[in-house]
Amino acid sequence: MYKLIALLALLVNVCLALPPAERNRRELTSLRLPNTTVPTHYDLYLDTDVHLGVMEYSGNVRISITVLEDTNQIVLHSLRNDIHRLELSSNQLPVPVEGFELDAEKEFLVITTSNVLVAGTYYVLDIDFSNSLDRDDKAGFYVSSYETEEGETRYLGVTQFEPCDARTAFPCYDEPSIKTTYNIKIACGLDYNAKANSPALGVRILPGGKKLTTFQTTPRMQSYIVAFLVSDFITERQISKEPHQIAVSTLARPTAAHLLSYSVDASVKFLRTMEEYFGQSYAMSKMDNVAVNDDHFWAGAMENWGLVTYRESAILFDPETQPDSDKVGIVSIIAHEYVHQFFGNLLAPKWWSFVWLNEGFANLYQFYLADISHPETNMRERFGGVRETALRNDGDPTIRAMTHYVEDRNEVKRLFDGIAYSKSASVLHMFNYVFTETTFQKGLRYYIQQNKDNGVVEDQDLFDSLQQAVVEDARLPLSLTMHEVFSSWSNQPGAPLVTVTRVGTTNEYLFTQERFFTDPQETAPSQSWWIPITYSTSSGDGIFWMPPGVSGVSYEIDGEQIMFDPESTGYYRINYDPQTWTNLIYDLYENTDFISRLSRSRLIDDSMQLAHAGKLDYGTAFKVIDYLQEETEFIPWATAASNFEYLHRMLRHDEEVLQYLESYVAQLAEKLLVEYGFDSVKGESADAHDARMIALRWACNTNQQCREEASKRIETMRKRSSFAINSKSDQQLVCNELRRTNYGEYATMVENLRSMHDQRTRSIMIDAITCAEDKTVINDLLVSLSSNDFKEIEKLQIIQNMFKNSNVGLNTVIEMLSNPEYLSNIKLSNRNLPKLLQTLADYVVEPAAATKLIAIVQREAPTQLLAVQAKLRANQSWIQRNAVIVSSMLKNPAQVDLQQ
Strands 56-67 and 122-132: what pairing? Predict the structure, then answer.
């Protein structure tokens, strides 16, 4: 005992003998910041020369810091920054710094002080640094460009910081829960303008043909939504004065000046709708939309507070050449990014584990609120496609839960997936319906008001606010809490299959639940959920909660013509006993009005997906599908079309079966084609436009009238020797005929494409050209991608269209990608190539092609290997289980009775 005491005393003496720097140095084992210090304000200055085509920039950042724990280390993030001077002060007096080091693995800047920094004290960290806009990853503060009408290249600097790239533009505390204010100053050329999150305070002329723009102090915000733009962009602005003044603008290259008006008008309408719906004012006096060259902006759009960035194609609109249906996409993406101003910006996630609190709300309310601000879009009903996509993803056994913890930056990036967007939005959508929109809206208003001052949230904060609302309005049984109900959905992967069995001819129904897998060979530990079962009968509507952890639940429901989940809001699949399926199919044909469009969509999707998974016979599934011969509504047909596309890619390796499939679907789509015709109608709804596109895609496979009309239009193009296709409907109409076009005509089309400048027209022409199924044509077009005639986004479009459109295209693409030299020549980025290979895996069903693809992935994107192998196994499993059955049904139309 004495020896132990002596040893402890010796250790204490050794520790006391160490210098203060050694005693308080924390071992940095995590990729997370130690957070012994936190920033309370940033003064950021940037000096740019991008107006001269100079990519290097210099900067200074002064970070006001509070010490939370005694420490001799200040740890923040820095990557790609060359640090030239670093000083620490307190009350304007210098504080000795022993030195600093950059931890490349953790992306930390670790500063060691000579003395202990005591908890509760305040310091200013002052850093001079330099960096460059010239980077290939389109992240951080990077260069973009455009061409003037005279052919001159003009450069600009723009930011993309989410999730982990603010640190690559300036040293900072780059974690989502760390919020503080920013004062930003940017120097640029006199003929350029600087923009940042907040409005400009003033501009001062500098020597050397430059000027300095100073911006107002921002709200408290996290680093990943800091943003700036240095450009010569033109601006269209609208001042919205009620109930408070907001200047809303869209900025773009000068040659796009005529394409800005619709986005500005849509932005004002949506912003006011959002404020009213959530009972919260937007935090700033301005909102800028920035249109960036598609090829230079991989994110699609980014919700930076007050300075939202988009791909040009996502937000620019030409009223002279574009159909009104294109407005739906513009409204949708503006809505998504604006909802983030509350969910993500005002309320930031405590960590990336809760990114679904950002993306789920943005994805849901881009549909809900756009339907209010722009009722002509019919956006709310279109949300059904989001739910269907989410359920299909959740059938994968390797899928993650909504709340999922990771630290590595690459793992963080992978959290921005279908779970964060589609599944979380679908779960929120379900609860919005179950608790009623009024109560759910009240809960979200509580959520905003109760958390906006702190500004950082986790899932429990949402559950607390929703709990308060459902208790006040008595929307949840007293025995349940929102925490246990919602957690059963957010903390485990997958989605349930609810099987409903009617007990004889009584009003009693037995309900069971299990996790649904797309492949029935997959298994997992037993899972269950708190499932809200909603129903509608001739006697009225109702709801009950199916508890987890029980083998089955019996429930009595009075009334006839029962429909479960009548508005298709439940995040689960439903299977029925054979007699109930028979009754539902009868109602589809005879009492269609009783079944809403959304429920008809649900029956299509559930029946086909259940058949794929071996939970329902294909005969029943095809009987559900058969009713489409009388359907002309877009919503059910959109669901059907996605299911037909899946069958098309799984069966197209067998040319005979593929022809049977196309003939079968063409018969179903004949009435749809008659309803909507070949050409767009001025002022028609987006639903009508999109229904026509489905009809042209499927009915024209075998329709003689389609062939004749397509031939006329191609002949007109031949006479003009232009082969220019300017509308999506024209492209879809002539696609089948273009497969039969000769090589010389294809060469003319490609040559015309090279000379086109309008991005939208180029995109349509690419879709037309890639209808080709001739291997020589496909090969030549793929080889041409090594030239400078195509932007990267167009190269991706061409390659994807080739392998999506035909088996010949798929095999040719795989042959080309197998050659490392080819990949080197076409110069696909390290970000886009792995995504391309993952998408390609969805279309590979033959073993030889699968083997080649695996070799490509091992060589070019090894981190995606497990995901690609899982997709290939799933495809092979489907082929083994279902191909013969489905093929037999399609070859023998008597089994698929279109005259039922």
Answer: antiparallel
